[in-house]
Amino acid sequence: MEEKRYPILEEEESVGLCSEPSVATRYAVEEQIDVPVLGPSTWKEAMDDLDESEKEFDAGKCIPWEDVMSEIKDRYRLYAH
């Protein structure tokens, strides 16, 4: 059986070359997007929001559960089908 001979880098003519053309387009650069904070960003803001929500609930200013579920089902239909 013939012994395998691996190339020696110093003997190769095309060392360091690749098969891509020299005028290949560069990779797409990802744009940095700042995601807005959707909720409170500090503990104090979170507690203030909770206090405000409890006051609204006690005053009867809340969304009925049936309305919430109806909205969820409507959105689900849009994405699932």
**Uncertain residue ranges:** none
- Please indicate the percent range of residues in DSSP E strands (runs of 2 or more): under 5%
Number of strands: 0
| Overall residue-averaged pLDDT value | 78
Report on the architecture of this protein.
This protein is mainly α. Helix content is 40%, strand content 0%. The protein has 2 helices and no strands. It has helices spanning 43-58, 65-80. The longest helix has 16 residues, at 43-58.
Fold blueprint:
Layout: H1 43-58, H2 65-80
Offer a quick outline of the entry.
By secondary structure, this protein is mostly helical.
Please supply descriptive tags for the structure shown above.
81 residues, mainly alpha
